[in-house]
Amino acid sequence: MYRWVRARHLIGVRGRRFIEAPWAGGVVLLACVAIAMLLANLPATAAYYRHFLETDLALKIFSPDGSIDWTFPRGLTVESFINDCLMVVFFFTVGLEIKREIVCGHLSSVRQAILPVVAAAGGMLAPAVIFLLFNHGTPAEHGWGIPTATDIAFAVGILSMLGDRVPVSLKIFLTALAIADDLGAILVIAFFYGGDLQLWCLFAALALMGAVWAANRMGEKRMIFYLAPAIVIWGLFYYSGVHSTLSGVAMALLIPMTPRYGKEYFLHKMHWLKDRLLTAEPDMDGDGVEDEFPNEEHRFYLRQMGRLSSGSVGMSYRLEHALTPYVTFLIMPIFALANAGVEIPSAEYFDLFHTSPETGAVGMGIFFGLLVGKPLGIFGASWLAVKSGLAVKPEGSTWRMLLAVACLGGIGFTMSLFVDALAYSAPALIDRGKIAILMGSTAAAVLGSVLILLFAGRKEARR
Fold it and tell me: Can you give the three-state secondary structure of the chain, one letter per residue?
């Protein structure tokens, strides 16, 4: 019995340590990618895997005589439920993180924000240009946004595993760059990868968002007044032609960051509750023995303390803290399982240099966009910003190490897979795009890691 309890305790401790590690999300995602590839290609599971993703999830109401035939939402399958519904939570969390960084983080001042923002812009422009050099005038042309994204979970996770070989200033730089890159990717999706606009839905969503903004300005801090409209706004976005996941970002920016209770009120009220808790009459059982703490009155004051503590932290911080583990270890892995499974009928799919009238050079465009365009764009924009005096180089860093870190910006993965599904409708283009994303992201991760180890080793040798 003791050994079982001790083993359970050790598993719990190690599990918490794993979840709290910055690289844990990337490890789980890699495992899900491998599982998805196996499910999509093993003869025993391939048909079931594809059939499951295409299963209809819509609510249908109809009458036998055909007078009633109503479906909501239209065209919702398991795959689209993951991409259009679950990923809203991912984008909502990204929006909360972007807002936090802009208000009080690495992007809160011009001096702090200018270098990562300029670097992110360069890191989006260069891959798009390289992609179009390979695919201009081909059916793959519309996918130019695929290699422009950086996956923050993988990039920061690799930096964390490399330890103190990378200066802290460059870790902050890459984190801020990835956040600015996420914002850029959101804008690209909003402007270039939506459908036919249904203006009345869009105007209704904007009107409701205006009402939520007004409630925020008037000091409303109760969560129901933000999360309930968020569901309606998602539905309006879903039918508006603007991708529904962007409703998550839009609502995140409207969530208040200031707490419901200020510091003075919190201290005064908590002191009062503590006194009431200490002076509460203990309950007695039938033998006149005092019951164990807490009794019913104790629990009442403890609940009040919990509400007071929760209300003294901004809603935005509370939601980000609560949602991040679910996004990292549930939603993103489910997304990877649904989107990384590519059926590979032949080894030709791994030929990045394959071109055809149907697929263009989509593989080369994405692969070299991630592996070459991202690092060159990030490094080149950073060099120009520093040399022109617009920004300053991260403290304690070298240009070689900045180039190595810029290579990690070529890890596209989550956002690239998402854009790939939006950009194309032809299965051949989607699948070849996914293969190129996985290969390009892997190559960028390996190149960046090797260069960091190499440059860090030379630095130690000079010492």
Answer: CHHHHHHHHHHHHHHHHHHHCCCHHHHHHHHHHHHHHHHHHCCCCHHHHHHHHCCECCEEEECCCCCCEEEECCCCEHHHHHHHHHHHHHHHHHHHHHHHHHHHCCCCCHHHHHHHHHHHHHHHHHHHHHHHHHHCCCCCHHHHHHHHCCCHHHHHHHHHHCHHHCCHHHHHHHHHHHHHHHHHHHHHHHHHCCCCCCHHHHHHHHHHHHHHHHHHHCCCCCCHHHHHHHHHHHHHHHHHCCCCCHHHHHHHCCCCCCCCCCHHHHHHHHHHHHHHHHHCCCCECCCCCECCCCCHHHHHHHHHHHHHHHHCCCHHHHHHHHHHHHHHHHHHHHHHHHHCCCCCCCHHHHCCCCCECCCECHHHHHHHHHHHHHHHHHHHHHHHHHHCCCCCCCCCCCHHHHHHHHHHCCCCCHHHHHHHHHHCCCHHHHHHHHHHHHHHHHHHHHHHHHHHHHHHHHHHHHC
- 198-246 pLDDT tens trace: 888 889 999 999 999 999 999 888 889 998 999 999 988 888 878 888 8
pLDDT at position 460: 47
* pLDDT tens digits along 78-99: 888 898 889 999 999 988 988 8
Q: Is it the case that residue 1 has pLDDT exceeding 90?
A: no
